[in-house]
């Protein structure tokens, strides 16, 4: 059942991020054509700004699922299996903590924006709903990160060609 929930959540993320990306591309295309006729698209930057927020946070869960975050591991290929497992566990725990803090910070920011009634400059649209949507997608990313950490069934993301063979110990 959890796998089917994950599949549906990730499908939703793919759909929303794809629609947001296509919307941004369409706005950029229409704006560039309309600028040639000296009639730029009014509020085009705000359209892109709102779509970019939705796109970024919708793709966050997809990056977490595929373990595509940027990591710095100078000697990660040289770790033997027990140390590689420990490192994977440590980074997974750090990832869950970081996403949890991000969820809390975003919810807090959305609450502040809603409390103060912060509006966009051109359309006078409140910012808070977009931040709430981003928070919801961050919660989905946190769910996926917890599932990844809990299952630990995933095969290594990349082959370890430079790892020291076990028989040379």
Mean pLDDT across the residues is 88
Give the helix/strand class: mainly alpha
The main pleated sheet reads as:
none
Shape summary = elongated
Approximately how much beta-strand content do the residues carry?
A: under 5%
Q: Please indicate the count of domains.
A: 1
Global Rg = 21 Å
Q: Terminal Cα separation, in Å?
A: 43 Å
The tally of strands reads 0
SSE ordering: HHHH
Helix content: 55-70%
Can you walk me through this structure?
The protein is mostly helical and 169 residues long. The chain has one domain (2-168). The protein has helices spanning 2-36, 44-65, 81-116, 128-151. It starts with a helix and ends in an 18-residue tail after the last helix. The mean pLDDT is 88.
Can you lay out the helices and strands and say which pair or pack?
Blueprint: H1 2-36, H2 44-65, H3 81-116, H4 128-151
Helix pairs in contact: 1-2, 2-4, 3-4
């Amino acid at each position: 059942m959890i796998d089917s929930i994950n599949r549906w959540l990730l499908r939703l993320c793919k759909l929303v991020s794809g629609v947001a990306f296509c919307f941004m591309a369409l706005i950029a295309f229409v704006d560039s054509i309309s600028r040639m006729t000296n009639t730029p698209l009014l509020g085009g930057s705000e359209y892109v700004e709102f779509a970019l927020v939705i796109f970024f946070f919708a793709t966050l869960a997809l990056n977490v699922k595929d373990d595509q975050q940027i990591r710095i591991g100078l000697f990660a290929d040289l770790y033997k299996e027990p140390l590689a497992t420990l490192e994977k566990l440590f980074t997974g725990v750090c990832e869950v903590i970081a996403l949890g803090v991000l969820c809390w910070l975003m919810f807090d920011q959305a609450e502040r924006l809603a409390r103060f009634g912060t509006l966009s400059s051109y359309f006078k649209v409140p910012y808070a709903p977009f931040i709430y949507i981003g928070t919801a997608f961050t919660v989905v990313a946190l769910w996926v990160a917890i599932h990844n950490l809990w299952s630990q069934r995933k095969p290594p993301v990349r082959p370890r060609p430079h790892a020291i063979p076990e028989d040379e110990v």
